[in-house]
Amino acid sequence: IPVSHCFGELKASLLRNESIRCWSNIPFITVPLSRAHGKSFAHRSELKHAKRIVVKLGSAVVTRGDECGLALGRLASIVEQVSMLQNQGREMMIVTSGAVAFGKQRLRHEILLSQSVRQALHSGQSQLKDMAIPVLEARACAAAGQSGLMALYEAMFTQYSICAAQILVTNLDFHDEQKRRNLNGTLHELLRMNIVPIINTNDAVVPPPEPNSDLQGVNVISVKDNDSLAARLAVEMKTDLLIVLSDVEGLFDSPPGSDDAKLIDIFYPGDQQSVTFGTKSRVGMGGMEAKVKAALWALQGGTSVVIANGTHPKISGHVITDIVEGKKVGTFFSEVKPAGPTVEQQAEMARAGGRTLAALQPEQRAEIIYRLADLLTDQREEILLANKKDLEEAENKGRLALPLLKRLSLSTSKLNSLAIGLRQIAASSQDSVGRVIRRTRIAKDLDLEQVTVPIGVLLVIFESRPDCLPQVSALAIASGNGLLLKGGKEAAHSNQILHHLTQEALSIHGVRDAVQLVNTREEVEDLCRLDKLIDLIIPRGSSQLVRNIQKAAKGIPVMGHSEGICHVYVDTDASVEKVTRIIRDSKCEYPAACNALETLLIHRDLLRTPLFDQIIDMLRVEQVKIHAGPKFASYLTFSPSEVKSLRTEYGDLECCIEVVDSVKEAVEHIHKYGSSHTDVIITENEKTAEFFLQHVDSACVFWNASTRFSDGYRFGLGAEVGISTSRIHARGPVGIEGLLTTKWLLRGDNHVVSDFSEHGSMKYLHESLPLPQRNAS
């Protein structure tokens, strides 16, 4: 749309006292954007405060794979992201390539059309296939493509009610002080009027570049010019953030594609010596070295820089917004080097430490756990003092609900229970790693064994509960796994001292690095992307945390449960003495626990009986709020509040009561509305109980016992890393066995498969062999 029309809209909007940002159909998001320029952001998490942002689009991002024409879908996605950020109140600028490629497409079309007409007139149709396209000069392509490129941007931004303006510059413009001031003033005025400036080098008049051998039919203007242009503009305009999009994920420590290449998450000035630059991208004359030089120049000028991939189909649709949100995308340039290792380095240390741990003798691993148990009681005062700091900070800030404060709190009795649990783990872990679980004689002198081995590196993310740290650490040590721990900031002091004691215990056998505590500002979502470094994620926390992790973890298995909707079914043959005791314990002993009762199913024949009255009276005395299920409500004249959903985890002194007609209907209800966690039947009828036990498909199914028994410590596992409701190798409370996998060992003597062919000299036996005796201790 014409610029004059945009000004008219601007004036009308001001007269109506409306915000310019409300023009777009993208929701407005309020972000605190005020920031004094002069120093770049130190951490990715601060990028959300960036107000003025330059997005540099490299030739490889804007052009198609055949370098003839634009990648329209990719460009539309970039425009959408820029529009979204613009309508959040940010000031967006684009430095773009693409004029040459767009012009090449137009000129090729014109030449082909012209040649086809001439040849049709003079030579006949038979020679059309012999037409050759001449080499097109880059400046001519740019001249033909600039207007079309800008028209395309204008059309796309119009969809979001945003105006765009074109600015063409050359390097010479920056050497003339007056032109520099004019450029600066123009850009500021455009930003003030909520217009997105689109800047490009004036490729129609710049000196010709060096020939580029890997391009077909055209020399593309050097990408390095646009990198330098973007960096210069970013500093001149006091920009908060420069996003450089290319066709690689970011900066690697060696050329991308080489076997040992690793993406550098954060790059610091002075790290150039540790990087080997490879060849440049498929288009453009620059390369990663040019981008790094431009990025460091901008960083010195106070502008933060991120180099990322703008061409990958899975991420290009949200790469810009992800960067601004502080997600771990591409390479972030920072002047502030952290004191400790990066999370990637910690994961590598945990893997190396875990392998050393797995190679220790079982008695040595047990010694480490016994030592940790002793330290929990010996250093009790220091632990409780650190925990007191966490509790005081949480109460002062008022950010934790009462159930979470209870989880955060440590006590002498909790530490004693922890130490007892750890000693149980040490005692039961003697033959967990390397245990032979199957032996088969494949043929004469060819024996096969299946043995238990650690999974690898575990990432355990937990909220509020610092007692989780030594429990999980002990299980990882016993199973020979490396461990990354990510605790909530509300338990920072407690986690710090508990991790210090864990490393002290590990040090007695030189495996201190096997357990790592992530203290950097890593977002959980970023940790879940480390699929090459982490083998299993175990979340311990709220159902929302678990769901978020399950959603974010792509390529890494997640073991856990998102909800604990536990049922207790009271059958017609239930014992009066057992019912109220089991229900009270299941609901009231610790209502915030994932294994607490949430739905009480009662057989219809028990309504209006003394037993039913006793249940209701007990719940009232315990101040449990009752929600009526649809069928239960239909039996009552004046019912409690009807439940909004039968699939609700209350996590408090609340529960749902529903009526069923039979044990079969109870099982069907549990399958429809439960979460496969823990479900209970109360009955004296053994046949009914066995039907329930066999047919309920949950991780834990109990008869005449509280749901609260669903716990690793109470199962005799010593502790648990969590309760799994998924259909993998471990279900229910997960102890040492759930943290092991297996490998196959085949011992032969010059055996080859061809010996077992139809005319071969050997035959398969496949005989089962006895297993070695387990350690009696």
From TrEMBL:
<dbReference type="GO" id="GO:0005759">
    <property type="term" value="C:mitochondrial matrix"/>
</dbReference>
<dbReference type="InterPro" id="IPR016162">
    <property type="entry name" value="Ald_DH_N"/>
</dbReference>
<keyword id="KW-0521">NADP</keyword>
<feature type="domain" description="Aspartate/glutamate/uridylate kinase">
    <location>
        <begin position="51"/>
        <end position="309"/>
    </location>
</feature>
<keyword id="KW-0511">Multifunctional enzyme</keyword>
<dbReference type="GO" id="GO:0005524">
    <property type="term" value="F:ATP binding"/>
</dbReference>
<comment type="similarity">
    <text>In the N-terminal section; belongs to the glutamate 5-kinase family.</text>
</comment>
<keyword id="KW-0067">ATP-binding</keyword>
<dbReference type="InterPro" id="IPR001048">
    <property type="entry name" value="Asp/Glu/Uridylate_kinase"/>
</dbReference>
<keyword id="KW-0808">Transferase</keyword>
<comment type="similarity">
    <text>In the C-terminal section; belongs to the gamma-glutamyl phosphate reductase family.</text>
</comment>
<comment type="function">
    <text>Bifunctional enzyme that converts glutamate to glutamate 5-semialdehyde, an intermediate in the biosynthesis of proline, ornithine and arginine.</text>
</comment>
<protein>
    <recommendedName>
        <fullName>Delta-1-pyrroline-5-carboxylate synthase</fullName>
        <ecNumber>2.7.2.11</ecNumber>
        <ecNumber>1.2.1.41</ecNumber>
    </recommendedName>
</protein>
<dbReference type="Pfam" id="PF00171">
    <property type="entry name" value="Aldedh"/>
</dbReference>
<dbReference type="InterPro" id="IPR015590">
    <property type="entry name" value="Aldehyde_DH_dom"/>
</dbReference>
<comment type="pathway">
    <text>Amino-acid biosynthesis; L-proline biosynthesis; L-glutamate 5-semialdehyde from L-glutamate: step 2/2.</text>
</comment>
<keyword id="KW-0418">Kinase</keyword>
<dbReference type="InterPro" id="IPR005766">
    <property type="entry name" value="P5_carboxy_syn"/>
</dbReference>
<feature type="domain" description="Aldehyde dehydrogenase">
    <location>
        <begin position="342"/>
        <end position="607"/>
    </location>
</feature>
<dbReference type="Pfam" id="PF00696">
    <property type="entry name" value="AA_kinase"/>
</dbReference>
<dbReference type="InterPro" id="IPR020593">
    <property type="entry name" value="G-glutamylP_reductase_CS"/>
</dbReference>
<keyword id="KW-0496">Mitochondrion</keyword>
<keyword id="KW-0560">Oxidoreductase</keyword>
<keyword id="KW-0028">Amino-acid biosynthesis</keyword>
<dbReference type="InterPro" id="IPR005715">
    <property type="entry name" value="Glu_5kinase/COase_Synthase"/>
</dbReference>
<dbReference type="InterPro" id="IPR001057">
    <property type="entry name" value="Glu/AcGlu_kinase"/>
</dbReference>
<dbReference type="InterPro" id="IPR036393">
    <property type="entry name" value="AceGlu_kinase-like_sf"/>
</dbReference>
<keyword id="KW-0641">Proline biosynthesis</keyword>
<comment type="pathway">
    <text>Amino-acid biosynthesis; L-proline biosynthesis; L-glutamate 5-semialdehyde from L-glutamate: step 1/2.</text>
</comment>
<dbReference type="InterPro" id="IPR019797">
    <property type="entry name" value="Glutamate_5-kinase_CS"/>
</dbReference>
<dbReference type="InterPro" id="IPR016163">
    <property type="entry name" value="Ald_DH_C"/>
</dbReference>
<dbReference type="InterPro" id="IPR000965">
    <property type="entry name" value="GPR_dom"/>
</dbReference>
<dbReference type="GO" id="GO:0055129">
    <property type="term" value="P:L-proline biosynthetic process"/>
</dbReference>
<keyword id="KW-0547">Nucleotide-binding</keyword>
<dbReference type="GO" id="GO:0004350">
    <property type="term" value="F:glutamate-5-semialdehyde dehydrogenase activity"/>
</dbReference>
<comment type="subunit">
    <text>Can form homodimers/multimers.</text>
</comment>
<dbReference type="GO" id="GO:0004349">
    <property type="term" value="F:glutamate 5-kinase activity"/>
</dbReference>
<dbReference type="InterPro" id="IPR016161">
    <property type="entry name" value="Ald_DH/histidinol_DH"/>
</dbReference>
<dbReference type="InterPro" id="IPR041744">
    <property type="entry name" value="G5K_ProBA"/>
</dbReference>
